[in-house]
Amino acid sequence: MSASLTSSPETIITELQAIVGDDKVRSDAEILLSHGRDWTKAHTPAPLAVVFPRTAAEVQAVVKLANQLAFAIVPSGGRTGLSGGAVAANGEVVVSFDYMSHISDFDPIDRTVVCQAGVITEQLQDFAEEHGLFYPVDFASAGSSQIGGNIATNAGGIKVIRYGMTRDWVAGLKVVTGSGEMLELNRGLLKNNAGYDLRQLFIGAEGTLGLIVEATMQLTRAPKNLTAFVLGVEDFNGIMNLFNRFQAEMDLTAFEFFSEQALQKVVAHSAVPRPFESVCPYYALLEFECLNDEVEAQAMALFETCVEEGWVSDGVMSQSLEQLKNLWRLREDISETISKWTPYKNDISTIISRVPDFLESVETLVTAQYPDFEIIWFGHIGDGNLHLNILKPDGMDKDEFFKKCATVSTGVFEIVAKFGGSVSAEHGVGLLKKPYLSYSRSEAEIALMRQVKQVFDPKGIMNPGKIFD
Length: 469
Fold this sequence. Notes:
By secondary structure, the chain is an alpha+beta fold. 35% of the residues lie in helices and 20% in strands. The strands form four sheets. It has a seven-stranded antiparallel beta sheet, sandwiched between helices. A five-stranded antiparallel beta sheet has the order 5-6-10-8-9. It has a four-stranded mixed beta sheet with strand order 1-2-4-3, sandwiched between helices. A hairpin with a 4-residue loop joins strand 17 (374-380) and strand 18 (385-391). Helix 1 (9-20) runs antiparallel to helix 3 (56-69) and helix 13 packs antiparallel against helix 14 (398-418). The longest helix has 21 residues, at 398-418.
């Protein structure tokens, strides 16, 4: 929907200024570019304006105005998304939550805290730590992603094996629907079977039903003495074998993997050293709470067993907090490191037991069609989530590269469908995955999604064109 269909841009901007103030509506080129996109580079941002509300009431007034003047809204959090879900490319009004970053109402008994939508993930993590608690949803963009965006995409990250997705830590939501209604959903209750849980509809909806303005987030106890192994593995079946062995006997907080190609990029880009001299096709990073000497001895015994079985060829265990951080950087710095190659990203998943065959099938397809493209693999083995990154050759035009990758994506998603997986494990659908939604969802499911959107957003003004048309 274009804002110019029924109202002039000047009228819309004037009315927005009346709600939030003249200085909180921006239409200069720099701000339109920065706030009209996310981390994807496949679409050119072209919003009408960016509005910066400071309260839930102002957000509600903006949405009511959008219904009245028939302009579309695109929510903007930390803009760290990887599916084009926060792209405004058709004259929409971007609603930024940068000024809604207040934390309040901490309850140490319930271990809950109320966050405005613009609270930075790391801000919440630091708040929890200051109060002797822990917010466990963590990922590389924690320093810039916002809680509202995390909820809208049901963000996952590196601790899912132990702590689950963002969905599992949302105790309540305050939202403004597409029609301008303010709803308070679940209100922090642990047990609430009084009808439908509408809160869960807004989690992962990518702003297509309405805007999240406030969230009651659950916290938990802080883990103690986190310790990590990085283990070199010759083949992917070895990774699955050691995952099964460690998972059977220890409570892991993370189990990640990355390829030698990914490791080479990180080491070349940063001052982080290789974990050990041996070169292996794949590496597993597993983390656990080393609570006492008995747990440490058990972990070392499991490591030695995996070496004896031939699953692991080399490894290292962190002996200090600094070493733990460096081992994690080998995994966490991958996305930032490869960004210079404008990677085409696929965020796919299947059932954990099917991961080795799944990865082999995808890699065989991509290398057969485009043998000159470099492939970087990493992901979250503990939840069956693989990140396939195809790097753009230096001499290739960006548009040509994305066109070629889109062609191979059809084959990749056919494999996803064959394995009963998801075309988007944690990044959302947005614009980039929209053409492939049917590989993970049936026609009946998509039809019901459209009906749900119609209920909450009858005029179709909320993040239009995302997930489905």
